[in-house]
Each structure stands twice: as structure tokens, then as C-alpha cells.
Design goal:
heterodimer, A: 154 residues, alpha/beta, CBS-domain, 4-stranded mixed beta sheet, 4 helices, 7 strands, 27% helix, globular, B: 174 residues, 20% strand
């Protein structure tokens, strides 16, 4: 009976943060595209390992693809600068609020010295929820499987 | 009165299984939802998320056109529909992972070459918790909702779930 969501108490570290790839700001967008494909990732952080300057996500990639952009430009030209971040001590609840209000699906996590410590993805929050539900809810069939005509009398 | 968690039938007190659908009721006492958020997840059905109508394209639509549609309409995926039936889904993730740096050369190819075929779907009366679990299990960001004839009538996204959670937490101090 460990069914208790502690959205206001548990830190983002409990919501399955993922490691983030970090690339140098001079990396070309083309290289970033290939890196995202090879690592099956949806974002990279841009900057140095001790300081984030920006984030480049698959949404940014989509916009470039739709516009037929030249990919031989540095990622720094098209990244989102100074992204909203989560602190490593922030709660899962705060992460949900930040993501929902900003329309973000992933937020970089930083520690006290602004050093990147991975990223929290919306999928991590879903996984956190699933881990906290009682297993019984998932055994519910999406559709009632049979109907009885009437109650049995005794 | 015990409400069946599945079909919402009102069963008489003490029933072991739902008189309407046969779902076991004996496990209902296992989990006592402690907060409003928990209770909502277990009780609410996906309709409360106000699922948007999905944007649909035909299988032969050029993928380049689909990319522009995704950006212009600020959406993360389109569903692919043939004869009113859902046959696939194409998301921004598919765009990056499957087209990647070759997108310019491939833009005239039909979206059906790159879509995910026969996507996982939900019935309109599915519980929110069930939708969350489906999305988690398959790493989906979007799950189409279909009617009993398999026709798409809505789409639930991970964003909808986040917004729902944020609303439910409401004034909770965080």
C-alpha cells in the first residue's frame, strides 16, 4: 500500500530524470540532427559541461525542417537561449506546474552551482505516476468484457 | 453502494464482482486515494481532458506538407486516416528520427512511409490513469481516442495530462 503521490514533497530526482547530451555552441545543426538520431534523443543542451547556454529540441528541429533550412549553421543560432530550468531540489509538483504553464515537455535540471544535472521529461513524470498507482487500476479492461442480463436471485 | 471502477455500475454493498461487467471489486479497498490528485486520476475518464480533435491527413500526403502542417498548427503529431479509419500516426519525433538530415530529399515522399502504423488507441470512456499507463508503457506522447467503430474522435497528449495534473494540484503549495 505504497500508493501515495508526494507531488509536494518528492524532488525531481524521483521522477526519473534523464542524462542530457551537451554540445558546444559551435556545433553545426547538421551534427546535432545526427547526434539526436544516433542517441534516439529529443533534445541536447548547448553550452559547457558546467554551464548551460541553451537547449535545442526536436520541436526546433521540426521548424527548421519545415522551413527547409540550411543545417550548416551553428546550433547556437537556433537554440532556445537561457531555458527555464529546474533546481535539483525542486519538487515534482513544481516541475509539473512549470512544464504545464510554459508548454515545455522537458526542462534541464541544474544544481546549486548551475551545473547541468540532466533533464526532466514529461515522460519521466508519467512514469513516476504509474509507479505510484496501485497495480489494480491497470488490470481494468478498457471495455467491460461481458454483461450479465440480470442479478442472480437467491 | 459500490461503484464499479470500470463501468460505474452501482453494485450492492458487499458484492465481490460487478453485476454489470464482471470486474472484480475485491481489490477496491487496496488503495485508498489520499489526495484529490490521486482520486481524480483513478476516477476521471479521458473526456475530462477535453481531448482535441486530431488533425488528419491522407496516407499519400507528401511528408514535407505534413511537416509544415505540424508547425503551422502548433501540433506535435497528425493522424493518418484512410476511409475514415485510423491507419497511422506521424509525430515530430518521427520527423527527426526518420527524415533527419535527408528531409529535403524526402519531402515529396508519402507520409505513409514514415508514420507509425496501427497506433495504440483509447476508448472515450478510459480512465485517465489508464491513459497515463498506456503512454508510459509505449513511450507515446499522443494517443488517439476512437469510437466503437474505430473512427478517431480525439487525441490525448502528454501535455493534456500535465495540464490536468497542474489544474488538480491547483492551489496546493509547492
Amino acid at each position: 500500500m505504497n500508493f501515495q503521490l508526494r507531488l509536494d514533497a518528492e524532488s525531481v530526482e524521483h521522477a526519473f530524470p534523464s542524462d542530457s547530451l551537451t554540445v558546444d555552441p559551435h556545433t553545426t545543426v547538421r551534427e546535432v540532427f545526427l547526434l539526436l538520431k544516433d542517441s534516439n534523443a529529443g533534445h541536447v543542451l548547448v553550452g559547457q559541461t558546467d554551464q548551460i547556454q541553451g537547449i535545442f529540441t526536436e520541436r526546433d528541429a521540426l521548424k527548421l525542417m519545415a522551413g527547409g533550412a540550411d543545417l550548416q549553421i551553428p546550433v547556437a543560432d537556433v537554440m532556445s537561449r537561457d531555458p527555464v530550468t529546474l533546481h535539483i531540489d525542486d519538487t515534482v509538483g513544481k516541475a509539473i506546474t512549470s512544464m504545464s504553464h510554459g508548454g515545455y515537455r522537458r526542462l534541464p535540471i541544474v544544481d546549486g552551482a548551475s551545473t547541468p544535472r540532466g533533464a526532466l521529461k514529461a515522460s519521466g513524470i508519467l512514469h513516476y505516476l504509474v509507479q505510484h498507482f496501485p497495480a489494480v487500476i491497470y488490470n481494468l479492461p478498457p471495455q467491460p468484457h461481458h454483461k450479465t442480463q440480470e442479478r442472480e436471485g437467491a | 453502494m459500490i461503484l464499479c471502477p470500470d463501468c460505474s455500475f452501482e453494485n450492492i454493498e458487499g458484492s465481490d464482482e460487478c453485476q454489470e461487467c464482471g470486474q472484480s471489486l475485491t481489490t477496491l479497498h487496496l488503495a485508498e486515494a489520499a489526495t484529490d490528485v490521486e482520486r481524480s486520476l483513478l476516477d476521471d475518464r479521458v473526456g475530462v481532458l477535453n481531448p482535441k480533435l486530431p488533425v488528419a491527413v491522407a496516407p499519400e500526403t507528401p511528408v514535407g506538407e505534413v511537416l509544415q502542417k505540424l508547425v503551422a498548427q502548433s501540433i506535435g503529431c497528425v493522424i493518418v486516416v484512410e476511409n475514415e479509419e485510423l491507419v497511422g500516426i506521424f509525430s515530430e519525433r518521427d520527423a527527426l528520427q526518420k527524415l533527419n538530415v535527408d528531409f529535403a530529399a524526402l519531402r515529396e515522399h508519402p507520409v505513409s512511409e514514415y508514420m507509425t502504423s496501427d497506433p495504440q488507441t483509447l476508448a472515450a470512456d478510459s480512465k485517465v490513469a489508464f491513459a497515463v499507463q498506456r503512454m508510459d508503457l509505449g513511450s507515446y506522447r499522443h494517443v488517439p481516442i476512437v469510437d466503437d467503430q474505430g473512427r478517431p474522435v480525439g487525441i490525448v497528449s502528454v501535455r493534456d495530462i500535465l495540464r490536468y495534473l497542474a489544474d488538480k494540484m491547483g492551489a496546493v503549495e509547492i
